[in-house]
Specification:
Helices cover 50% and strands 8% of the residues. The protein is α+β, with helices and mostly antiparallel strands and 417 residues long.
Length: 417
């Protein structure tokens, strides 16, 4: 059989006596051959298509066998007293992610900063309402954290809200892949921070080895930050605490541990109790030496008297006076095409920038926390909670056993380990 037509029919054409019959049968047979041949051609593609999957650029390339990765594994195992075979096996399973390389890059040169637009990204009604609910559900732990470290609830609520929308957006990248990518293939075009990410990759391996956990199970941001507070692995090892004293540290599903760890982080960075993070300012109409005042960036470098001598007026003079001899920074916030706005940042403004070194981030945290507090008071959801129990918990020494919740592959959804 050829082209789906039985060729044994052809001899019958020869024995037919009528010429007309022979011509008619031949025409029918040729038509069947052409139709069957065309069907065969449509069923089989002329050339094989590429089997490259959609989005293959983000699938990732495994690091197994790369000389620099093998050397890193050897040195890390020796320096941190880890099982060398285990370290090599974990790093061999890590993958280079092009998406991580793209996301770590800064915005194009010339992109105008706009504090108003940045603020609006975080002060949405949904995020504010989620903050009110988070505060209400965890008021006991927020008060306990303030009693122990002096960090107000609105600051902690602001950080968790800006970082992860109260756990709704914690990142879907495998932390192992993200850190390996930025350790061994940090993209050119910006300042090289590969050494920092190698340190964080080491800390991730130390954390996983101590807990006998597969590090590939943890999901986080493209920069390798983890959990509701988006702690880097080094901060998990150093500053995360078991605030609810259940014998484990869980930054993915335990709000008490998240709250205590954020407050502990800020206290370790130098948080000053009862000190406002910023003061509103008014600049004089006459020219002032802005370049000199802005040169230290957000590092507090001037006394209130020095700012006043330059014509800078603090809108809340009594609060600034109560701060005593504390130094201030004049912080500029660009507003796109509109004139910039300014605030005077205190030591606590600087401390918040240790979480994310951006004045816009710090202002977003403060603004969100203050708006959540205002909405909470306006709605009447603020209720007194006995601090006595919380204070007792806060005074207890935190356990140093670290156990993070494991996250399901691909989905980023997390559950307690």
């Amino acid at each position: 059989m050829r082209y789906g037509v039985d060729m044994r029919l052809c001899p019958k054409l020869i024995i037919m006596r009528s010429p007309f019959q022979r011509k008619l049968m031949l025409a029918v047979w040729l038509g069947m051959v052409l139709i069957a041949g065309n069907a065969q051609a449509q069923a089989s593609p002329a050339a094989p298509r590429s089997l490259k999957p959609r989005g293959a650029a983000d699938v990732g390339t495994a690091y197994a066998g790369r000389a620099d990765v093998v050397d890193f594994a050897r040195r890390t195992a020796a320096d941190r007293e880890l099982d060398p075979r285990w370290v090599r096996r974990q790093l061999a399973g890590a993958k280079r992610l092009p998406a991580v390389q793209r996301l770590i890059m800064p915005p194009p040169v010339g992109t105008a900063k706009n504090w108003g637009a940045y603020r609006d990204r975080f002060l949405t009604s949904q995020r504010v309402q989620a903050g009110v609910e988070f505060w209400q559900q965890n008021e006991r732990w927020l008060q306990a954290a303030q009693a122990r470290w002096g960090v107000p609830p609105e600051v902690i609520v602001g950080i968790v809200g800006v970082e992860t929308f109260y756990g709704r957006i914690m990142g879907t990248f495998r932390v192992l892949d993200a850190l390996a990518t930025l350790s061994f293939d940090f993209p050119s075009g910006r300042s090289d921070r590969s050494e920092f990410f190698r340190e964080q990759l080491t800390e991730l391996l130390v954390l996983a080895h101590r807990q006998r956990t597969d590090p590939a199970t943890w999901r986080g941001s493209y920069a390798g930050a983890m959990g509701l507070p988006q702690f880097m692995p080094g901060n998990v090892n150093r500053l995360a605490i078991d605030f609810d004293e259940d014998g484990r540290i869980d930054l993915y599903t335990s709000a008490p541990d998240v709250i205590g760890s954020v407050a502990h982080f800020l206290a370790d960075a130098g948080w000053v109790s009862d000190l406002p993070a910023r003061h509103e300012v008014q600049l004089p109409l006459q020219a002032l030496d802005l370049p000199t005042l802005l040169a230290p960036d957000i590092r507090p470098s001037f006394t209130a008297d020095q700012l006043r001598a330059q014509g800078v007026k603090l809108s809340d003079e009594p609060a600034a006076a109560a701060a005593g001899d504390g130094l201030l920074a004049l912080v500029e916030l660009q507003m796109g095409e509109a004139p910039p706005t300014y605030v005077a940042g205190t030591q606590n403004f600087w401390v918040l920038s240790r979480y994310n070194r951006s004045s816009y981030y710090v202002m977003a945290v403060l603004s969100l926390g203050e708006e959540v507090k205002r909405q909470r008071l306006q709605s009447g959801s603020a209720k007194g909670v006995a601090v006595e129990d919380g204070a007792n918990i806060a005074d207890a020494a935190p356990a140093r056993t670290v156990t993070l919740a494991r996250c399901k592959p691909r989905t980023g959804r997390c559950a307690q380990a």
